[in-house]
Design goal:
The structure is a single chain. This protein is globular. 35% of the residues are buried. β1 and β2 form a beta hairpin. α1 (2-15) packs parallel to α2. Strands 1, 2, 3, 4, 5, 6, 7, 8, 9, 10, 11 and 12 form a 12-stranded antiparallel β-sheet that branches. With 305 residues, it is mostly beta strands. The chain has helices at 2-15, 154-170, and strands spanning 50-64, 67-86, 90-105, 115-118, 125-132, 137-144, 185-196, 201-219, 222-242, 245-262, 268-283, 289-303. The protein starts with a helix and ends with a strand. The chain has one domain (2-303): Lipovitellin-phosvitin complex, beta-sheet shell regions. It is 10% helix and 56% strand.
Length: 305
């Protein structure tokens, strides 16, 4: 049971990089007009809230002594993005979450029943982002607007990474300062360290993503940039401790995503992503026993119009 608990938390951490994600439904897509060149600029209207619906599905399969233990979870939330300052060079955004729910199923073999949890305390947490007009996040912090929310807790630490970390990595794309032409590609590398009190976990995620500009798409009365994303490198490593046992965490994965970005504001209209991760936990105090886990993450982030 302890192993599954550690695995579940690790999956939440990985999901932090994958909020708003689900495989694209190509049969419903309108044709992309590939002949146009375009410029990207982050230019939302100051003070106007933009509301998004997020859904993330996670399937974790833990392999223990030739027995598979699948656990399924679903995270849903409404997210409000408010531009608090828009200048010629910097855009400041405040992100708030509402109605966060976590559904868990497949826990019977752990001696627990399926459950649904509401997390109202997250409404007192805000993510403050400072970005360039090209979409690069130069500064980010998570602020508690209620003194009671500032108290340390396992629940807050896990979900704080789930929401704040996910937005930091995936909500905005950093674009080149050049005209975008169909087929144009660029890459971005990042290394993110997450430290949590849960089992003294420290996990480093290293990613290199390749972006491909596909062209323009007119949908729902808005002109959008279409960008495809795929991982060139996706690695994780770290350590954890529980009940006196030290564990090593390692893994690799594949990430693919599709963005529709409104040209008028520079904000996403839709983000779809899918990821598959092979994770391994090594129990150093039990003869370096390796416990593998497969994680599949799919979800969707769509703006309300």
């Amino acid at each position: 049971m302890r192993l599954v608990s550690i695995g579940s938390v690790c999956a939440l951490l990985l999901t932090a990089n994958l909020l708003a994600q689900a495989p694209p439904k190509r049969s419903q897509q309108q044709p992309v007009r590939t002949q146009q060149a375009a410029l990207y600029r982050l230019q939302p209207t100051q003070g106007v809230p933009y509301t998004f619906d997020n859904t993330v599905h996670i399937t974790q399969t833990l392999h223990v002594m030739d027995v598979e233990q699948p656990i399924q979870s679903k995270v849903t939330m409404r997210q409000e993005v408010v531009p608090t300052s828009v200048s010629d060079s910097i855009v400041q955004l405040v992100l708030r979450q509402r109605g966060v729910q976590l559904e868990l199923s497949g826990l019977a073999q752990m001696g627990a029943s399926d459950s649904t949890m509401s997390l109202p305390e997250l409404e007192a947490l805000e993510t403050h982002m400072e970005c360039t007009r090209l979409g690069k996040v130069v500064r980010q912090s998570i602020v508690a607007t209620d003194s009671s929310a500032a108290a340390s807790s396992i629940r807050r630490q896990a979900i704080e990474q789930l929401t704040g970390g996910g937005v930091r990595v995936q909500f905005l794309i950093e674009f080149p300062d050049d005209p975008l032409r169909p087929g144009m590609q660029w890459t971005r590398a990042s290394s993110d360290t997450i430290e949590m009190g849960i089992a003294n976990q420290r996990i480093v995620t290293t990613m290199e993503l390749r972006y491909t500009y596909s062209g323009m798409l007119d949908t729902l009365g808005r002109r959008c940039l279409v960008v495809q994303v795929e991982s060139v490198r996706y690695l994780l490593s770290g350590t954890a401790e529980q009940m006196g046992m030290t564990m090593g965490i390692s893994g690799d994965g594949v990430l693919r995503a599709r963005y529709l970005i409104e040209q008028a504001t520079g904000l996403p209209l839709l983000i779809e992503t899918a990821a598959q991760i092979d994770q391994r936990m090594t129990l150093y105090d039990q003869g370096n026993t390796v416990v593998p886990m497969n994680i599949d993450v799919q979800g969707r982030m769509v703006r309300r119009l």
